Amino acid sequence: MNGERGTGIGGQGSGGGKWSSQTGPRVRFLELHLREDAEPVATAIRRVIDRGWFILGPECEAFERELADTFGASHAIGVGNGTDALALILKALGIGPGDDVITSPLSATFSALAIQMAGARPVFADIDAERLTLAPDAVDAAISPNTAAILPVHLYGQPADTTLLKAIADRHRLALVEDCCQAHLATCEGVPVGTLAHAGAFSFYPTKNLGALGDGGAIITNDAALAARLRRLRNGGQTDRYRHVEPGVNSRLDELQAAVLRARLPFLRSWTARRRALASRYRSRLTASAVTTPPELDPGHVYHLFPVRSHARDELQRHLAQQGVETLIHYPVPITRQLAMAGERPADCPIADEVCDQILSLPLHPGLTEEDVEFVAEAVVAFAHQWSA
Predict the structure, then answer these.
(1) Statement to judge: residues 280 and 317 lie in one domain
(2) Which domain holds residue 233?
(3) Of 34, 181, 261, 384, whose CB count within 10 A is highest?
(4) 248 and 339 fall within a common domain
(5) For position 363, which CATH number holds?
(6) CB contact burial 65-86 (16+ within 10 A = b; e otherwise)
(7) Low-confidence ranges of the chain (pLDDT < 70)
(8) Cβ neighbour number for residue 97 with a 10 Å cutoff
(9) Global confidence as pTM
(10) Beta bridge pairs of residue 188
(11) 11-52 pLDDT tens trace
């Protein structure tokens, strides 16, 4: 998962005109204004307001059907956010106090916080140095008698090696839960993420490939019984109004956000194709630079972010800022070194530590132009020449 709280992202897109530090970045990291989806979104919002039904109504039901069909699953359940989606899946699977869940140290900390929300203990296995997602051999070594589940994160839009992780989970009779919050429409060896596991969690935080105009999340699964329990748990454990059969939470995707997401969902495939084209352009331009671009190890990559690695990451970021290019770091601190995790006695994850010291995310979003990518790439290459001189 990833959030952009406090980063100041958004604003108008980049493009022509002379840049100055007084007018803001020439190439913004992300642009959140509506574009071709503006009219459908406005129509959807008006429809909800005119109907006067705002929680668990026809918009959420329709969005769940449409999302399940788009993402290749039998069932979708709308919830309040991606963190709740992960926690609810674990709870619905009976995972809680006394259980360990193996996950990645390289992600937004919300991935591990969701495990704690379920009452379980996050256990961290190191990442693969190229894919930057959970390393299957490290997961295998981390399994103990207390392990109840494996929770891979499909990071930056690149799917984790779910095929191998599922084989490990099956061999040890463990649950497999996919964090798909950065991987809308991604596939692993042709299989949609979230469908190889018991369930997959998605976030619709505004910066995601499919974003709401606020918080939102969803769960997909092919298990009808699990879907039914998740629908109860998100709504206080109710089977019907005021009849609570088990302890649940209040985490429901509201009608306004569901309507917005319905309006934007038809654009997701073209937005994904645009991200892939821009990423390909970056890759072709950065081959001779001093930065390393993590390889695309599965054609199902959807490029939620475009990270590069540099041994001079901080200097590179300052150089790009001086050139008018806005960048962010995903993530500067591995989850294992977060104070919130100190009580979990996390294992050392040296590869994740190294990556967090080197990683830098370049601008990548559907509103970016080819000229923007060329400008950013030229700035990176220029830094490489200066650094090596």
Answers:
(1) yes
(2) 38-266
(3) 181
(4) no
(5) 3.90.1150.10
(6) ebbbebbebebbbbbbbbbbbb
(7) 1-23, 388-389
(8) 8
(9) 0.94
(10) 191
(11) 333 333 345 555 678 999 999 999 999 999 999 999 999 999
